[in-house]
């Protein structure tokens, strides 16, 4: 396959960036999108140019490191992570636009790499449980109803990649935060911090400069792990409950 | 004012990080402001349904329509004084409009700040109703001002406003081309606003879930269509001479 790539190049957070156009040839349809970018970078390095910086780690679709807005879609046209997106999803001769996540809470570090540590700070403010240390408790010591376990697991699938923020026209982190809140709040292990968790994580989300939710549903459409849109309603319910129940 | 897990020293420290009151928490949070928007929006939606049903009385003739308008002023008597019920409704509505608009303005500012740079590769995404919530809201706010000046105070009313004769006043307004245009545009804006707004409010209030989603969307769509059709029927009836 022969492709034209228009890639966002930006030296650092301070300098303004722009789209740069590159031609790549000899791309196999079986390559992942990141392998295609590796091919581009090899050519750039051989030509004495600086390679395109992008985030990646496991390349198995489970770590949440890869990002990229491809032709206006977070993680590209398939509902998966960029590392699991294959070039067979494109046509020979296509022009592909590659941009970083865009949100003021995710400043660009370089090229396609953004700083997602705002997510870490949301997690720090409530994404934990109070667990006794020592020997592991028996697996059946704390019964969890099956529907609750399923609900928790559905939300535990969130890999924190930030596609929800990238896709949201308001740069809102509501889907991410709701996944993390719902995951722990439904379980007995998360009960001691049930109220403080949702209040603190939402407060941190606001402080980090993410936008509010206008229920456009773009986040759930982009989410590679299928966190559903009603998760946001479930978190809103928890938040409203917490404003009444939390000890002041 | 992060309220993260503060590391409390081994000795019992005096708590200085008391949580804000419920009102403060609501007003300071993006989720809380959406809650305010949802509740105020539902209050206005409830009013619109009653207002639309009242408007339809115009099809029963001037006596019944004018009598209904007069009854609204005597509502709650003798417990309430003349027009008190109406004024209570007006105060609640003004509070709802102000809270809704201020929250919307502040949330919109936050949203725009959160996404300062647009994508180079743009895509039209959310539904038309979802994308037009902000402009639709502005149109509705301007319409409300005109509507009150036209048919409540009579300040900008065409052809001599007659207090106590709403039937004739309605005919006057819908006998002008601009009266019809302004009104129909506003009513379409109401329909679009309600179509996204009702379902959205349900999500904000935590009522939405996967099983109820279809039901909530249907209720929102039905409300939008019924309100639009009900309100539009009046100028259309005047224009076509059904009401004269």
UniProtKB/TrEMBL annotation, chain A:
GO terms for molecular function: succinate dehydrogenase (quinone) activity. Its cofactor is [3Fe-4S] cluster; [2Fe-2S] cluster. Residues 1-102 form the 2Fe-2S ferredoxin-type domain. Signal peptide: none annotated. It comes from the Bacteria. The keyword Nucleotidyltransferase does not apply. Keywords: Iron, Iron-sulfur, Metal-binding, Oxidoreductase. Its EC number is 1.3.5.1, 1.3.5.4. Residues 149-179 form the 4Fe-4S ferredoxin-type domain. Belongs to the succinate dehydrogenase/fumarate reductase iron-sulfur protein family. This is Succinate dehydrogenase / fumarate reductase iron-sulfur subunit. It comes from Streptomyces clavifer.
């Amino acid at each position: 396959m022969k492709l034209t790539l228009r890639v966002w190049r930006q030296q650092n957070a301070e300098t303004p960036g722009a789209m740069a156009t590159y031609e790549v040839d000899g791309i196999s349809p079986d390559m992942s999108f990141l392998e295609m970018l590796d091919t581009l970078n090899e050519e750039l390095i051989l030509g004495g140019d600086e390679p395109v910086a992008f985030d990646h780690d496991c390349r198995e679709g489970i770590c949440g490191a890869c990002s990229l807005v491809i032709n206006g879609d977070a993680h590209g046209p398939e509902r998966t992570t960029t590392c699991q997106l294959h070039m067979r999803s494109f046509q020979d001769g296509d022009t592909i636009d590659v941009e970083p996540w865009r949100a003021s809470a995710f400043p660009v570090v370089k090229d396609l790499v953004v700083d997602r540590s705002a997510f870490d700070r949301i997690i720090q403010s409530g994404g934990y449980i109070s667990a006794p240390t020592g020997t592991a408790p028996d697996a059946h010591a704390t019964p969890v109803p099956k529907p609750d376990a399923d609900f928790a697991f559905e939300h535990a699938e969130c890999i924190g990649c930030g596609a929800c923020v990238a896709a949201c026209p308001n740069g809102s982190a509501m889907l991410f935060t709701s996944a993390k809140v719902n995951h722990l709040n439904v379980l007995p292990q998360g009960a001691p911090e049930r109220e403080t968790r949702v209040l603190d994580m939402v407060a941190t989300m606001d402080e980090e400069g993410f936008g509010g939710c206008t229920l456009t549903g773009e986040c759930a459409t982009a989410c590679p792990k299928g966190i559903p849109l009603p998760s946001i309603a479930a978190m809103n319910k928890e938040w409203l409950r917490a404003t009444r129940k939390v000890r002041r | 004012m992060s309220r993260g897990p503060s590391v409390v020293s081994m000795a019992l420290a005096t708590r200085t990080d008391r949580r804000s009151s419920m009102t403060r928490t609501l007003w300071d949070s993006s989720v809380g402001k959406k809650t305010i928007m949802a509740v105020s929006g539902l209050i206005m939606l409830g009013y619109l349904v009653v207002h639309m049903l009242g408007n339809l009385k115009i099809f029963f003739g001037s006596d019944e329509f004018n009598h209904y308008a007069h009854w609204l002023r005597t509502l709650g008597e003798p417990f309430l004084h003349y027009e008190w019920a109406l004024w209570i409704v007006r105060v609640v509505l003004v509070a709802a409009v102000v809270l809704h608009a201020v929250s919307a303005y502040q949330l919109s500012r936050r949203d725009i700040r959160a996404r300062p740079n647009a994508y180079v590769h743009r895509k039209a995404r959310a539904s038309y109703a979802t994308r037009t919530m902000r402009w639709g809201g502005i149109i509705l706010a301007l319409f409300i001002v005109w509507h009150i000046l036209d048919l409540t105070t009579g300040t900008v009313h065409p052809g001599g406003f007659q207090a106590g004769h709403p039937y004739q006043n309605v005919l006057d307004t819908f006998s002008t081309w601009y009266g019809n245009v302004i009104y129909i545009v506003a009513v379409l804006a109401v329909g679009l606003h309600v179509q996204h707004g009702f379902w959205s409010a349900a999500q904000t209030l935590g009522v939405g879930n996967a099983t109820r989603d279809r039901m909530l969307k249907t209720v929102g769509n039905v409300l939008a269509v019924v309100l639009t059709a009900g309100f539009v029927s009046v100028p259309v009836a005047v224009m076509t001479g059904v009401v004269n």
